Amino acid sequence: MSSTEAPVALITGTNRGSGRAIAEDLRCRGYRVFSLNRSLAGEDRLGERRCDLADPRQIREAVGQVLEEAGRLDVCVSNAVDRVLDPIAELDEADWDRLVSINLSAAFHLIKAVLPALRAARGIFVAMGSHAGSRYFEGGAAYSATKAGLKALVETLLLEERRNGVRACLVSPGAIANLDGDESRYKMSTRSVARCVCTIIDSWPRDLVVGEIEVRPAHLAEPPITGIDRLLHV
């Protein structure tokens, strides 16, 4: 298959972790990959365009460059994310605004930029959500709020654009070993998460829409000791 015939995928945040694994998996499946990264990995195979996802203008310009070069777009994966895990009383307003921009608003601006091309290709938009969007925790206000908003955005996209041939899917994973050197058996590997995402993109029947899928680590850590059971560990 020539590069002009290969399906085209655009992914945000491929310089590390799950985004990098998704890019590699799609390349192995024959996709031509392009990336929007704020910090560049410097690898030609990622097809990187420098883009600060907090800036809608940069998103529009970078997507325009990709479409001009590729001539089409079959897949878009909104993966890039920022995290600040501070209690509300200590959460800086600038950190809140940045997380809303990168984790939620960037997905909206990305959809707006790629939607005409996805309609033409009858393609798919995948957003990486999180269990944090429905399982809240202390210190997670900004992260959880943006992931909950992302769920609403993707579901609405699916309702509106399915009639135009565009599929939309929210992938909501639990704990992922996203950091280099993290080999915890209680987290999913980035390769496993990527395989799940790319199977939805590339291997599921075209007359079937996966609106949302939740994935969890297969192994559980020991639960905290509570109640009278504490007496067994004094």
Automatic annotation (TrEMBL):
One of its GO terms (molecular function) is oxidoreductase activity. It holds the Pfam family adh_short. The keyword Zinc does not apply. CDD domains: SDR_c. InterPro entries: NAD(P)-bd_dom_sf, SDR_fam. The keyword Acetylation does not apply. Keywords: Oxidoreductase. Belongs to the short-chain dehydrogenases/reductases (SDR) family. PANTHER family: DEHYDROGENASES, SHORT CHAIN, ESTRADIOL 17-BETA-DEHYDROGENASE 8-RELATED. This is SDR family NAD(P)-dependent oxidoreductase. The lineage of its organism: Bacteria, Bacillati, Actinomycetota, Actinomycetes, Streptosporangiales.
